[in-house]
Amino acid sequence: MSQISTLRTGLIFGTDTGNTEEMGGKISAVLATYGCEVSMHNIADAVPEIFESYEFLILGIPTWDFGGIQSEWEDFEQQLQTLDLKGTTVALYGLGDQFGYADYFVDAMGWLNERILKTGARVIGAWSTEGYDFEASEAANKDKTLFCGLALDEDQQFDLSDDRINAWVEQLVVELEEARAA
Ligand SMILES: Cc1cc2nc3c(=O)[nH]c(=O)nc-3n(C[C@H](O)[C@H](O)[C@H](O)COP(=O)(O)O)c2cc1C
């Protein structure tokens, strides 16, 4: 059993049509195979204390309306600014449609990353852009080689999501253990 099994772990998602919740369930199921029990919360019902009660947090957000922020995450923006997540490790995942919205692919994940970094949290789980076809993304670095978290596309590449989730969770486990050993 890995060290990750001892971490208090929460997953907070926002969703309009259910995809981000469904992917959160899959991520939690894979983490369970490492002995890590995940509590899931909808951001619509979240309060800052929920964020602050976990050692490891996974945050999921879809992008809507040309780079827009999912509405309940957007409603939580002021409270995000009050969070103190020093000592918390955070990993992000974002849902989007790379062909339908190629200039705004998973933009909202970049928005969330920017705000989470300001809370003092350590963000892990950067993910390669290889295998995606998009023009621009607020969630990607300057040279478009890495997203700040896992990008999932249930509209155009739903058949790749399970493999991506398996590989990403494996990467998270390694990154968490490296950090603990350091
Ligand atoms: C009207 C509309 C606007 C969208 N805008 C974007 C966008 O700007 N960028 C993007 O990557 N995906 C966009 N999408 C795709 C959604 O993010 C995608 O369908 C996602 O899986 C929805 O997640 P949810 O079911 O958790 O709400 C849009 C979808 C629709 C229908």
User: What is the average of the pLDDT values?
Assistant: 96
| Fraction in beta strands | 15-25%
Ligands present: flavin mononucleotide
What is the CATH class name?
Alpha Beta
- In the CATH hierarchy, the third-tier topology is known as Rossmann fold
Structural class of the secondary elements?
A: alpha/beta
Low-confidence stretches: none
Please estimate the helix content: 25-40%
The CATH superfamily title: Flavodoxin domain
Task: List descriptors.
single chain; 182 residues; alpha/beta; Rossmann fold; 7-stranded mixed sheet; two-stranded antiparallel ribbon; 6 helices; 9 strands; globular; binds flavin mononucleotide
Describe it.
With 182 residues, this protein is of the alpha/beta class. The protein has one domain (3-181): Rossmann fold (3-Layer(aba) Sandwich), CATH 3.40.50.360. 33% of the residues lie in helices and 21% in strands. The protein contains six helices and nine strands. It has helices at residues 19-32, 48-52, 71-75, 77-80, 107-117, 161-181, and strands at residues 9-13, 38-42, 56-64, 68-69, 89-95, 122-124, 127-128, 146-147, 150-152. Strands 1, 2, 3, 4, 5, 6 and 9 form a seven-stranded mixed beta sheet that branches. A two-stranded antiparallel sheet has the order 7-8. The protein is globular. The model has no long low-confidence stretch (mean pLDDT 96). It binds flavin mononucleotide. Flavin mononucleotide is lined by residues 15-20, 62-67, 95-97, 101, 104-107, 154-155.
